[in-house]
Amino acid sequence: MDAFFAAVEEQRRPELMGKPLVIGGSGDPTRRGVVSTASYEARRYGIHSAMPLMKAYRLCPQTIFLPVDLKEYARVSHSIKEILSKFSPVMEDVGIDEAFLDISDAGRPSEHIAYDIKERIQSMTGLTCSIGIAPNKLLAKIASDLQKPDGLTVITERHVTTRIWPLPVRKLWGVGPKTEGYLKQLNIQTIGELATASRDLLIEQFGKSYGQYLYEASHGIDDSPLVTQWEPKSASRETTFQTDTDNWQTIAKALAEMVREVADDLTHRGYRCKHVTVKIRFNDFQTQTRAKTLPDASDKLEILRREAFFCLGRFALKKKVRLVGFRAAGLCVK
Q1: Cα angle: 159, vertex 163, 165; to 5 degrees
Q2: Contact 274, 266 (CB under 8 A)
Q3: 63 lies in the same domain as 123
Q4: Three-class DSSP category at 309
Q5: String of b and e for 127-138 (b: at least 16 CB within 10 Å)?
Q6: Is residue 264, in this structure, part of any structural domain at all?
Q7: For the chain, what is the domain count?
Q8: Residue 226 lies in a domain
Q9: How far apart are CA 116 and CA 167, in angstroms?
Q10: Of 104, 99, 105, 95, whose CA–CA distance to 117 is shortest?
Q11: d(CA 193, CA 12)
Q12: Residue 286 lies in a domain
């Protein structure tokens, strides 16, 4: 979907259309929080996802800031996924605003299907989407980003050298800023330059699994299947304090609330967890974690809270704390 959260808000409030709009946090740029979605008008000022709201405000003070309304976005997302399911029974739900469809057996030209999907979504929700069509998930993902908003891009294997190789390495799925930095040290900045690197060099630099992935991805190779059903690996929450704090009661209260939310989440979804982890980010952005393995998998609030506070007690809280997080992992069905 195109700038999904912002687009949903523009549908609810048409007077916002054409204006720089940011959805994130509490919607107050004077408080801590990050950009979840920026409208295309806001992106022209350099505003992007994961940017601190305060920085977004400095880049464009006339931007309109709104809080995240996940309940509404999830409702619209569900409607869109219902539309997509009518076009193919094989669908991988990637997130609230994205999905993969396998249309190999549809019996119709792929472009015709894509145009029908775009028309159906717009008529039902008033929203636009961008679609990438390709032989595999990797290339389809890249293609979907090439002509946003409201784009339709077809990539075939013969287009890899002409349309994929000139792109920056960050366009590859799974390449983040750290990998991009390492690749720059190797004088590799485009996907094409990555494709000319030897497999042995990439494995030496990034390990066997990730090095092999980078080599294959740069050549447009991806044989990963669509995952139509999946089991969650963890449940987590985290809180960023508006003001860095060294008050133990404030930290403990935030942790207790997160543990309660995670326990409720596990119970509601029918899971128990085997491992718990507490994360602390200090005011100098140093991040530490402490973990504990439970004797028996559990979703009981009192057990998770006890183990979470055991982990909290293992931190040397000598600096002010910026963020606290709690994660329950090793999930198993009750």
Answers
A1: 105
A2: no
A3: no
A4: helix
A5: bbbbbbbbebbb
A6: yes
A7: 4
A8: no
A9: 29
A10: 99
A11: 45
A12: yes
Per-residue pLDDT in tens (0 to 9) along the chain, 334 residues:
999 999 999 999 999 999 999 999 999 999 999 999 999 999 999 999 999 999 999 999 999 999 999 999 999 999 999 999 999 989 999 999 999 999 999 889 999 999 999 999 999 999 999 999 999 999 999 999 999 999 999 999 999 999 999 999 999 988 999 999 999 999 999 999 999 999 999 999 999 999 999 999 999 999 999 988 877 889 999 999 999 999 999 999 999 999 999 999 999 999 999 999 999 999 999 999 999 999 999 999 999 999 999 999 999 999 999 999 999 999 999 8
User: Which letter does DSSP use for residue 166 in this model?
Assistant: T
Domain that holds residue 182: 161-218
* Domain end position, chosen among 68, 94, 119: 68
Residues 243 and 305 in one domain: yes
Judge residue 235's burial from the number of C-beta atoms within 10 Å of its C-beta, 0-12 exposed, 13-18 middle, 19 or more buried: buried
Do residues 61 and 76 both lie within one domain?
no
**DSSP code at position 34:** B
Catalytic residues: 98
Distance from first CA to last CA of the chain, Å, rounded?
35
Cβ-count burial of 80 within 10 angstroms (0-12 exposed, 13-18 middle, 19+ buried)? buried
